[in-house]
Amino acid sequence: MLCSIAITGGRAESFDFVFSKGELSPNAIFDSATSPPGRYLLEVGRRTVKAAAACDALVIGNPILPMSGATLAKLALSEGSLPVPALICDEAHFPIAYALPRELFENGRDRFLNLLSTVSLFDARFLEFLTGKQVARLNTKLNAVTALPKVSPQGFVFDENPSAWKVQCVNAISLMERRQDWPSLPLAAHHPNHAGDVLFFSLASQLTKTLDYGAHVVCSSYVDIFHDCGNRLEPIVLDMAPLSRDGRVSDAKYFIQSIPHLPREDLENHFIVFSRFSKNYSATPFHLIDHARFALGDPISSFGETLYRQKSPPLRRCPLPTAPLRVLLQLSGGWPLKTYPEPKRRVLIQALRAFGCQVTVLDLEDAARDGAAIEQAGNTRKLSGLLHDHHIFVSVDSFPLHYACHVVGHPTVALFGPSSPSNSDAPRGVGYRLPLPSLPCYGCAGPACPINGKTSCDNYPGPEAILTAIFELADEVYEFQPTGDGK
Amino acid sequence: MSTTQVLAFFDAGFCSSGPTWEATHRADHWAYSLNQRWSHSYQPHPQTPAGSGRYDLCRAEQAAMVVAAARNVGFTGFVLSLLPWNGGYATGAELLAPHCDESFGLAFQWNNPDTADDDARLRRECRAVVAALGSDRHVRLGGRPTLIVRRPSALSDPSSVLKALRQEAETAGLPGLFVIANAAEKTAKLADAGFDALLDPDPAEWMSCDRHLAHDGFALLQAISGNGELSGLSDNLLNYTTFVLSRMNGRMERAGTLPRILPGFCDIADRQDGGAVILKEMTETRIVKEFYGMFVRKAMSLVEAQFDEGKRAVFVDSWNDWRHHSQIEPTEQNGTGLLTQTQEAIVWGHYLARTQTHHLKPRERVADGGLRRRVSGACAALAEKLDQAGIQSTLSKTIVRTDARDQTHG
Where are the domains of chain A? Predict the structure, then answer.
C-alpha cells in the first residue's frame, strides 16, 4: 500500500493508494516492475496534488514500506508542526516518509524523484538540491526498519536492488554538485537488455504521452533493436556484454558495474536511473510495455490507457504464393523451460509437412531431422527478411515474437507456457492467435518446473492447438485452406 | 469490466428460524459445522470464524453484512442449495434477496433424487424446484435464472427432466432456465440431454486418484498394530497443486465446462468411518502459496475465451461451507488471507479477460469442426508413430476431443 498526506493551511488530509492487481483507478496505482521506488513517490505526489489542489505541502510514505495514510499521520504529525522539506525516519534514520513542498510538483523537477535512494543520508542531500532548502531529518518512535525481506508482499525485490537505488542517487548528487544547469538535464533509463525488453522500452517510448525521460541506455549489441523499433529517446550506448541470464550477476550489480563503461560525455549530461526490475513483473497482470510506459512517466490510470486500447501496426502479408504455405517457427527462448517440448515439436513439424507446408525453424539445428530448414536470425534485418518470406510465424515468448506482432504486424501465433501471456502478449484480433495455456501456474524462470521437476513445460498448448491456429490464420489472412488429412 | 460472473456456493443454514432452519433439522448450524473432532494427522486444523463471526441470517443487518462482504470481494452472486422442506424446497433466498439487486443475485443447486420412471413424481419435483427459485433476484446466465443439477447421472432420463423444468419455468413466468449439470464431461446420457453447460464436480464427486490404500495389506497390518490410522486407509488425500493441475490440464479442449474453484476441502466430518476426501497442499513452495489465486484468475481467463458473452461464470466453492473446510470467510487462525487473495484474483481475472477482448481489430476467424478433426487425427497418428519410434510423447494427455468442442464452436 501507498499513502500520502496533503497539508493545506495547517490541516492534514490523508490518502491511501494500492498497487493495482488489475483495477486502474485514482487510488489504484499501476504496478510497474521497471520503476524504482521513487517513481511511486512521484505518482503518489502527482495524484495527491490533483486531489488536494490547494495544498501547501505533501507528506508521502516511502513506497517500499506498507503503510496507510492513518499510520503515516500518526507517525509524521504527532510532534505538531512539520518542517518542509523533511525526511521522517524511524528511530534509526531509515526514511519512512518524505515531506515535500507542493511547488516541486509544479516546476517540472518532480521527475527527479525517480532518483531517490530510500537511504536518508543521500535522500536528504539530494532533496536539498531539488528544493533548494535545508532538509530536516526527523526521527519518530517507529522501531528501526532493520530487516527487509528478499521480496516484499508488495513485490519489491530487496536482494541487491537497494544498492542500485543508492548508486543512482549518489551519482545524481555528484552531477548536481558539478553542474549548475542540472535542472535542464534529462533522465536516462538504464534498461540495456535483453532484446525483448529493449523492444518493449522502445515501443513504450512511442506510446508514452508524458515522457519524464530523454534517453535510454542500451547495450551495443541491441542498438539495432533500439533503432528499428522507433525509440523516441536518445540512445546511450553501453559498450559492455549484455547481462547473462544465468543469474550469477543481478540486474543491480550489472547496473553498478556498467556505469564506468558508459561514455563520459553521457554521464556528464544525464541522470542515469536504474530501470531494470525493482519489482517482480510476473506478480502483476500488466504488459511489460505498460510497465515501461509507467516508468517513463505515463500514469496509466485506466484500462483505456493500456496497450490493449492502443493502435497496433497494420497487418503485413507475405507476398509469396500461398502454396506451399511457408511457416517460420521460433521454438526456443531465453531459458530452458521456454523451449517448446521436443516431442510436441516433432509432431508439430511433421504434421505441418504432412499438410504440405514448408517449415523453417530458427536456432534449433535438431529440427532438421524432421524435415525443417534451419535458419539463424542474428539481427532485426535478418529476422525481417525471414518474416517477409514466410506466411505465418509461430513463436514462444521471445524477442522475435514481440518484433513480429508489435513492430512488423506479421501474422503470428504466440506460444506461452512458463510465462504469463498478459505480461507480453499483443492485442487480440485478425493476424494474431494465442492458444491459451490452460494451467494456472507460470512465472517459472528456473532450470526445471517447480511442481513436477521436469525440464520442459507442460503448460504449452499441444501441436493440435497450434496447427489449428496456424490454419485459422492462413484462412483469415491469405484465404488459404489446407487440403488432405495430413497423413 | 469483463462479463464473467464470479459466484460462490453459500450455506444458508446459518439462521435461527424459518423454513431453511427447519429444513436443516438442527438447532445450531454453526455448532454442526464447526465442532469437529480433530482425529487424523492429515485432517485440516479446525477453523473458527472471524470477521462477521457467527452470523444469523435471520437478522437482516447480518445478512446484509454478509452480502456486502461478498460484493466487496467481487462476487456477483451466491449459489443456494435447495433443501427439502414441507413437501417442497427451502433455499434461504428470502433471507438474502432483500440485499440483492441487478449486480448481485442468487443461483440455485438442486440435489436431485433419482426420478426413475415416475412421471408424476418428476412433474411434482420440477414444479417444486421452480417454485423454490422465486421470481426475481436471480443470477442470470444466457439471460435466464441459473440452476445447477447436482446429480445429473442419477436421472434416468435427463432430457425429460430438463424439458419438465423448462415447462414449469415457463408456466411460472420465468424467461426459461440456464441449467448446468454438475459433471466433468458430457458422456453417455448427458451428451444430448440439453444442459446449457457443465460444472466441475466437487472433489468428493470427482476422484482423480485410486483408493489404493484400502487394499494394501501392509498398511492394514500397520494400522491394526497401532502404527497407523485405520480409517485413514480408505481416506483420500489429494495434493492441492496436483489436483488443480489435473482439473485445468487440457481445459481449452474440454469445452462447455464451467470451472469450480476450491481453496481446500475435507469431508471427514461426514465420513468418520473412512472414505473421506481431503484436498490440501502437501508441499510448501513459492508457487504453491499463490496457487489458489492463480486458479481463480486462470479459470476466469479461460471462461472468457471459451464461453459466449452472458454465459460466462466461475464458481468458487465456497463462501461459508465451514463443515467441509472450503470456506473463504475470514478465520481467527488465518485472518482474511483467503478473502484478500480471492479479491485480488478476481480483479486480476477481470483484467485478463479484458485483455483478451477484441476492441480495435475485427474478431478472428475460427476453424470449423472438419478441419479440427483432420488436424487432430494427423497429430494423433504422428504422435503414435513417434512413440513407436521410441520417443516418449506427452500428446496423449492433450488430444483434442473434437466432438465436445464442436458443440461450442461448430
Answer: 2-149+156-309, 326-478
Residues B139, B111 contacting (CB under 8 angstroms)? no
Q: Chain B residue closest to A469 (CA)?
A: B367
Going by pLDDT thresholds of 50, 70 and 90, the confidence category of residue B219 is low
Residue B352: closest CA among A421, A213, A411, A318: A421
For an interface test with B, give the residue of A428, A471, A483, A485 to mutate (most B CBs within 10 A).
A428
pLDDT band at B289 (very low <50, low <70, confident <90, very high): low
- Give B217's contacts (C-beta < 8 A, 6+ positions apart): none
CATH entry, B5-357, from 3.40.50.1110, 3.20.20.80, 3.60.20.10, 3.40.50.720? 3.20.20.80
* Chain A contacts in chain B segment 216-245 (CB below 8 A): 241, 244-245
A324-328, A424-428, B183-187: segment of lowest average pLDDT: B183-187
Contacts of A355 in chain B (CB under 8 A): 378
User: Looking at residue B191, what is its pLDDT?
Assistant: 78
Give domain limits for chain B.
5-357, 368-410
Cis peptide bond N-terminal to A85, omega within 30: yes
Q: Are A7 and A58 in contact (CB under 8 A)?
A: yes
Nearest to A179 by CA among A107, A95, A270: A270
Neighbours of A82 (CB within 10 A): 20
- Please report the residues numbered 289 through 328 in chain A whose beta carbons come closer than 8 angstroms to any beta carbon of chain B: 303, 306, 308-309, 311-312
The β-bridge relationship of strands A11-19 and A28-29 is: parallel
Of B295, B352, B400, Cβ closest to residue A285: B352
| CATH number 3.40.50.300 given to A326-478 | no
Instruction: Read off the pLDDT band of A447 (50, 70, 90).
Output: confident
* Residue A64: per-residue pLDDT: 97
Integer angstrom CA distances of residue A228 from A70, A220, A392, A397, B105? 49, 14, 21, 19, 52
Task: Give the angle A53-A58-A61 at the CA atoms, nearest 5°.
Answer: 130
A464 near B CB under 8 A: yes
The answer to whether the CB atoms of B253 and A461 lie below 8 A apart is no
Instruction: Write the single-letter amino acid at A68.
Output: S
